[in-house]
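To make this tangible, this section ends with a sequence with its structure tokens:
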Amino acid sequence: QVQLVESGGGLVQAGGSLRLSCVASGRTFSNYNMGWFRQVAGKEREFVAAIKWSGSTTYYADSVKGRFTISRDNAKNTVYLQMNSLKPEDTAVYYCAVDLNSMGYSSSYYDTSRYDYWGQGTQVTVSS
């Protein structure tokens, strides 16, 4: 069992920044790949960013590349999403997720179905 708790969401003006955090407990965090996803009401959950267990490899959706940065601190069991130059279209509930089976991760990191546990989400609202 893994518990994930996100924080750091809020209301920000376009062009502003937020940093999301996701704290994990229940397993050895440093063994697992992590992802950030977001969802707007009525739409499917979409991939935002992912990071391998060591932190050596990161992946980004084209829509956030160059603006968002994913990182992790394995000593603190925490993964971060630094979001800069925010746009109104970034408004969504943001979720972190953990992948317990690393097989084939580099070819399916964006797939929600490969992640085993999810946090409760944190709302990000960007005003224009």
Q: What stands out?
A: The CA atoms of residues 41 and 92 lie 8 Å apart. DSSP finds one helix and eleven strands in the chain. The chain has a mean pLDDT of 96. The longest helix spans residues 105-108.
